[in-house]
């Protein structure tokens, strides 16, 4: 393959993919035209630990390579490297280790032949505890103006250790689930944009949350509640305080 590698799409954030391609198009079935860095197994790596997936299993970085027909080329040689302190990576296996904290994501690079794709990964503290920021909240719903039937975020905070002010765990996945009521059409979890979403990633303060969109037409009593759980795991096991119980009290707006 000849020609300069051109970055088409860059994985500037964790869990996104990067795609690069040659400017000269090779026509051999086994020649790599482009490759993508596969979605990261997790948005961050814990200081002193290896990158793990959501089940807690150590997971290497991987890529997918394509030929000029768009077919996947298996087992292409790939090399990984880092551009920043904070992480180390085995260039061949793609196993990443967090070796020092940093305020911004660490930059890494995947190389296949003359092509390279940059991507990034956060380094965070070990998650030890999780607790509700506010265990109860309320929503005044309307049968007429359905735009108001979305709650403020129901949030939890993930911390390292016993919860000192500087122990926030950033870039960690929190999973939310509605456990009551049983009517799945009554309420659903949504993100800031109103899209259905069951997970959030903690911010710099260790906080993650999801909103409740209420279908007011299915409310059966004047005062009702929606109960949800927020779960946080490390190495496949719930951390202290997980799952967290959160309650949204719902009642009609008065004219």
Task: Provide key terms for this protein.
single chain; 255 residues; mainly beta; Immunoglobulin-like; 2 domains; five-stranded antiparallel sheet; five-stranded mixed sheet; 0% helix; disordered N terminus
Helix content: under 10%
Number of helices: 0
* Helix/strand/pairing category: mainly beta
CATH architecture label of the largest domain: Sandwich
C-alpha end-to-end distance: 71 Å
Descriptive account of the structure:
The protein is mostly beta strands. It has 2 domains: 5-124, Immunoglobulin-like; 129-252, Immunoglobulins (Immunoglobulin-like, Sandwich), CATH 2.60.40. The chain is built from no helices and 22 strands. It has strands at residues 5-9, 18-22, 34-37, 44-46, 63-66, 72-73, 79-82, 87-89, 96-98, 106-112, 115-124, 129-132, 136-141, 154-159, 173-180, 187-190, 199-201, 207-214, 224-231, 233-234, 237-238, 244-252. The strands form 6 sheets. The chain has a 5-stranded antiparallel beta sheet with strand order 1-2-3-5-6, with no helix packed on it. Strands 13-22-19-15-17 form a 5-stranded mixed beta sheet, with no helix packed on it. Strands 4-11-10-7 form a 4-stranded mixed beta sheet, with no helix packed on it.
